[in-house]
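Risk register update: the risk of archive-format incompatibility is retired. Evidence:
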Amino acid sequence: MATRGRSARSAALAQSVQRSKPTPYPSKVRSALVRRAVLVGLVLVSLTLLTISFRSPTSGALHDIQGVGSSVLRPFQIAASRVAQPFRDAYDYFDGLAKAKSENAKLRQEVQSLRSQQLISLEKAQQEEQLAKLLRYHDGPTFPKGYRAVTARVISASANPFARSLVITAGSSAGIRRDSPVVSGDGLVGIVSNVFPTTAVVTLLSDSQTVVPAVDLQTNARGTVHPSSAGQLILDYVSKQLPVNVGDELVTLGTIDPRYPDLYPHGIAIGRVTYAHATDTSSFLQVELQPFANLSSLQAVSVLLATKKHHK
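Archived output:
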């Protein structure tokens, strides 16, 4: 009987106890909401204090409250500053890098512009120097009689020492004709090989087709100047019995027989002998020379036009 009574009471107690309602949010979510609400409240209080501070006197109870509020918000300000500092540093780094690249590109453009200006100035200086030499040659005692000169600028030429031809800014409209000798202020350059109304093509001494009768001014030895297979200018067909020495100057031979006029007038400087040697197996001297005209850096030349039909 006792056992049955205790069981009945336990059942009644179990039915009388009501279950508690489940919490609407988990504890973690609720804590986060509380923290956010506190943070928003503190921000609002800070903004309110700042607004009132600008509109209130410089002393009083309100400023005391403001000081307390600033002290409370100080940890948040420090934390925010520490969190934002890496982002500021990263921004400053990339901003500085972009500015440095921009400055570098600008400096490169300025350097390139200065180099271009320097090259233009150097080219103009070379051109003026060569024009001055041409003028001295025109007025000098070695300028061939019976000829006039048409000076032209070089507009196209090879930049290497084995240049074969160039184009000048004078053509048939200026009286230029084929087979007219071309000189610089230093010496013979070549001969006109093609003519157009306003331009002309000049075949240089270094071309394999060029052949120039020449004479040694010091010994009167005669031969023919033309390029060797290696591209070096040589004086060919000089008898071994004739003396030719290193340092001798060679000039154009000119016309010997009026029946066979030469293309080149007498006395145009060609070059200086750099090598002269005789061998037992050859009938002629081996003579090499360096041209006076720098064929790889011509800026201006003069075309010699005959004013008479034949010349010596």
